[in-house]
Design brief:
The protein is an alpha/beta fold and 232 residues long. It folds into two domains: 46 residues; 141 residues, Hexapeptide repeat proteins (UDP N-Acetylglucosamine Acyltransferase, domain 1). The chain is built from three helices and 22 strands. The strands form four sheets. The chain has an eight-stranded mixed β-sheet. Helix 1 crosses helix 3 and helix 2 runs antiparallel to helix 3. It is globular, with a radius of gyration of 20 Å.
Length: 232
C-alpha cells in the first residue's frame, strides 16, 4: 500500500483569457509615434537593446513602445517579457492583449508574415520560425514550445545541406488552440480550431479541430470531451 497521500486537484478561474484589454494611454501611443518619426528602424532596434533585459515597469513600457513603433501593426495591451528577441519586427502583425513570455525568440523574414491574434498567450523560452506564420485568437502557447517553418532542401548532395535552398512552408495555428510545453510544430502543419497538442509532442501533420494529439510523432488521442464528431 502506498504511503503517498492523496492530493486533490484544484480548478481555478482563468486569468489571461478573461482579461479585458483597455486602450493604451495616449502618452504611450504618442511616444511610439514620436520615436517612429524621429528614428529609423535600425536606431529603434538599438534603442530596444537598452531595455530588452530589464524587469522593471519602465523597461516593459519601452519594449512595448518600440514594438508599436516598428511592427506592421501592434494592438493594445501588449506585454513583452524580458529577453524577448526577434528578427524583422517590421513584418509582425500583433493583436490586442497579447502576452510574449521572457526569452522568447521570433524569427521573421523581410518578405514574410508573422500574425499573432488577439489575446494569445506565449510562454517563456518559446521559439518561432515566423517566416510564414499565423497564430489565431485566444491561443495558449506552452513554455518552450517551438515552430519550425522552413527546412533546407538537401539538394544537390554534393554541397553541405546548409548551403542548399531553404523551403518555407506556412504554419497555421487556428483560434482557441492550446499548444503544450516543449511541443514542436514542423513546417507546413495546421493546428485546427480548439485543438490540444500535448506537452513534448512533435506535430508532423495537420491536427483537426477539437482533437487532442500527443506523442512523437504526434498521434490522435481523442476528441475533446464535450465534442461529438459527426462521422458522416
Amino acid at each position: 500500500m502506498s504511503d503517498k497521500p492523496d492530493v486533490a486537484s484544484r480548478v481555478v478561474e482563468a486569468v489571461h483569457g478573461l482579461r479585458q484589454t483597455q486602450p493604451d494611454p495616449d502618452f504611450e501611443t504618442g511616444l511610439s509615434a514620436f520615436l517612429g518619426d524621429q528614428y529609423g528602424r535600425d536606431a529603434l532596434l538599438e534603442l530596444y537593446a537598452r531595455f530588452a533585459m530589464g524587469s522593471g515597469a519602465f523597461d516593459s513600457l519601452m519594449r512595448r513602445v518600440i514594438f508599436r513603433s516598428v511592427a506592421l501593426r501592434c494592438g493594445n495591451g501588449l506585454q513583452v517579457g524580458s529577453g524577448v528577441g526577434f528578427k524583422h519586427l517590421e513584418t509582425f502583425d500583433i493583436g490586442d492583449g497579447v502576452f510574449i513570455g521572457d526569452q522568447t525568440y521570433i524569427q521573421g523574414r523581410y518578405d514574410g508574415q508573422c500574425i499573432i491574434g488577439d489575446h494569445t498567450w506565449i510562454g517563456p523560452k518559446s521559439y518561432f520560425d515566423a517566416r510564414d506564420l499565423v497564430i489565431g485568437e485566444y491561443v495558449g502557447w506552452g513554455p518552450g514550445a517551438k515552430v519550425l517553418g522552413s527546412t533546407h532542401t538537401g539538394q544537390p548532395t554534393d554541397v553541405p545541406i546548409i548551403q542548399t535552398d531553404l523551403e518555407i512552408k506556412p504554419v497555421r495555428i487556428d483560434d482557441w488552440a492550446d499548444i503544450g510545453t516543449n511541443a514542436v510544430l514542423l513546417p507546413g502543419v495546421t493546428i485546427g480550431r480548439g485543438s490540444i497538442v500535448g506537452a513534448g509532442a512533435v506535430v508532423t501533420k495537420d491536427v483537426p479541430p477539437l482533437a487532442v494529439v500527443a506523442g512523437v510523432p504526434a498521434r490522435f488521442v481523442r476528441w475533446r470531451e464535450d465534442y461529438e464528431k459527426d462521422d458522416e
